DNA sequence: AAACTTCTCAACCGCTTGCAT
DNA sequence: TATGCAAGCGGTTGAGAAGTT
């Protein structure tokens, strides 16, 4: 495949366009249409390469381009689409009328990306980033906080969970989302702190000493994992389930003991893949106290498997909890509502989508739009 | 007011894709 | 099938604007 040599030609102007050049380009395209970009500059009397002309036209001069700030709806749409499409700027731009891929790319890199990072969300995976969580920022409203003896005892009690950083990340996500039972901010911080400290400690510990896993068990798990993925009909991985993750963990352990069918295991795994990968989920949250209780039990061997399941869920970026508002241009992207059946129960993704309603408006700094 | 830093975004670079021959 | 070219795409750059010291 050869490369276009057009820009290599000498004597062609580069850099910012002058109003005169813009006028020439607009006048020519209005009269003759876009046509062949290679021959256009010569015909239009421009000392530019065709590539430069095309870029100028598509990114700046096109009459249907919408100028000005991105609206909140546009920004939400970009985030949603990015969580699905990644850095496919042209694909994202195709769903945002009047916006160019270049404009969206710039806006992402200068605004949205930084905002997500500030929120502790990885802009690539759209998952929480506990590794960069700034505890001091979270605790800023409080004058000072020193861990109590009870907090330190809590941390020691949860040391077994050090081997399951993903469950910890999940737990922290839930806590960061805020519990409706906790109204007072200071009380919330005091409840949150031990968990965040523990999560960070556990992650550090996990990096030093990853849990041993026998190959046969690993292979078995991988098979179950694949079955789970199939059962979940990715990427429409959204289900309604009122049960807590801890309950699912217990159920899964029970299933494992009784050597149930792989598809049952897959269904259970599918349940466990619900938790948020990046955003606040308001209707299903990790039952942290139950998980804490479970971790403290002597035999927590099944946790490894479910921790890994969560890991896989996050890595695949499935069921990311991204909402699809009907007013958004992204609506219809997953227009086929799938129904996944497991364990005798079924839930359509469209119904479940409401249960995983993304509360971006709470997360984003609304003051930017004022 | 000047110097410096940070931010924004238009434009460019180079690679990939798709099509014609 | 191989090759060449045009168009498209995503990453990067750098000049100017805006903000800070």
UniProtKB/TrEMBL annotation:
<dbReference type="GO" id="GO:0003700">
    <property type="term" value="F:DNA-binding transcription factor activity"/>
</dbReference>
<dbReference type="InterPro" id="IPR015495">
    <property type="entry name" value="Myb_TF_plants"/>
</dbReference>
<keyword id="KW-0805">Transcription regulation</keyword>
<keyword id="KW-0539">Nucleus</keyword>
<dbReference type="InterPro" id="IPR001005">
    <property type="entry name" value="SANT/Myb"/>
</dbReference>
<feature type="compositionally biased region" description="Low complexity">
    <location>
        <begin position="307"/>
        <end position="332"/>
    </location>
</feature>
<dbReference type="GO" id="GO:0000976">
    <property type="term" value="F:transcription cis-regulatory region binding"/>
</dbReference>
<feature type="domain" description="HTH myb-type">
    <location>
        <begin position="66"/>
        <end position="116"/>
    </location>
</feature>
<dbReference type="GO" id="GO:1901141">
    <property type="term" value="P:regulation of lignin biosynthetic process"/>
</dbReference>
<dbReference type="Pfam" id="PF00249">
    <property type="entry name" value="Myb_DNA-binding"/>
</dbReference>
<dbReference type="GO" id="GO:0005634">
    <property type="term" value="C:nucleus"/>
</dbReference>
<dbReference type="InterPro" id="IPR017930">
    <property type="entry name" value="Myb_dom"/>
</dbReference>
<keyword id="KW-0804">Transcription</keyword>
<feature type="domain" description="Myb-like">
    <location>
        <begin position="62"/>
        <end position="112"/>
    </location>
</feature>
<dbReference type="InterPro" id="IPR009057">
    <property type="entry name" value="Homeodomain-like_sf"/>
</dbReference>
<keyword id="KW-0677">Repeat</keyword>
<keyword id="KW-0238">DNA-binding</keyword>
<feature type="domain" description="Myb-like">
    <location>
        <begin position="9"/>
        <end position="61"/>
    </location>
</feature>
<protein>
    <submittedName>
        <fullName>Uncharacterized protein</fullName>
    </submittedName>
</protein>
<feature type="region of interest" description="Disordered">
    <location>
        <begin position="302"/>
        <end position="332"/>
    </location>
</feature>
<feature type="domain" description="HTH myb-type">
    <location>
        <begin position="9"/>
        <end position="65"/>
    </location>
</feature>
């Amino acid at each position: 495949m050869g490369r276009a040599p057009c820009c290599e030609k000498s004597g062609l102007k580069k850099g910012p366009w002058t109003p005169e050049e813009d006028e020439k380009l607009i006048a020519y395209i209005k009269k003759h249409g876009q046509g062949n970009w290679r021959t256009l500059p010569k015909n239009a009397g421009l000392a530019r390469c065709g590539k430069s002309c095309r870029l100028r036209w598509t990114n700046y001069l096109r009459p249907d381009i919408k100028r000005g700030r991105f609206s909140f709806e546009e920004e939400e749409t970009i985030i949603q689409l990015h969580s699905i499409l990644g850095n496919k700027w042209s694909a994202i731009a195709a769903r945002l009328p009047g916006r160019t891929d270049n404009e969206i790319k710039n806006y992402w890199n200068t605004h949205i990306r930084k905002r997500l990072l500030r929120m502790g969300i990885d802009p690539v995976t759209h998952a929480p980033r506990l590794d960069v969580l700034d505890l001091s920022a979270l605790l800023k409203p409080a004058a000072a906080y020193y861990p109590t003896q009870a907090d330190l005892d809590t941390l020691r009690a949860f040391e077994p969970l050090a081997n399951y950083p993903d469950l910890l990340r999940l737990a922290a996500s839930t806590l960061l989302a805020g519990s409706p039972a906790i109204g007072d901010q200071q009380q919330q911080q005091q409840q949150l702190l031990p968990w965040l400290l523990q999560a960070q400690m556990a992650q550090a510990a996990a990096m030093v000493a990853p849990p041993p896993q026998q190959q046969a068990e690993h292979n078995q798990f991988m098979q179950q994992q694949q079955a789970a993925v199939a059962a979940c009909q990715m990427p429409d991985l959204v289900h309604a389930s009122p049960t807590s993750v801890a309950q699912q963990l217990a159920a899964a352990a029970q299933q494992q003991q009784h050597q149930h069918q792989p598809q049952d295991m897959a269904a259970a795994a599918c349940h466990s893949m619900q938790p948020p990968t990046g955003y606040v989920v308001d209707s299903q949250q990790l039952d942290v106290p139950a998980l804490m209780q479970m971790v403290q039990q002597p035999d927590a061997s099944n946790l490894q498997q479910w921790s890994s399941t969560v890991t896989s869920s996050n890595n695949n970026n499935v069921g990311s909890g991204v909402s699809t508002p009907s007013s958004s241009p992204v609506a219809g992207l997953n227009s086929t509502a799938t129904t996944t059946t497991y364990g005798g129960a079924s839930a359509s993704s469209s119904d479940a989508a409401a249960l995983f309603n993304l509360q971006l408006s709470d997360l984003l700094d609304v003051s930017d739009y004022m």
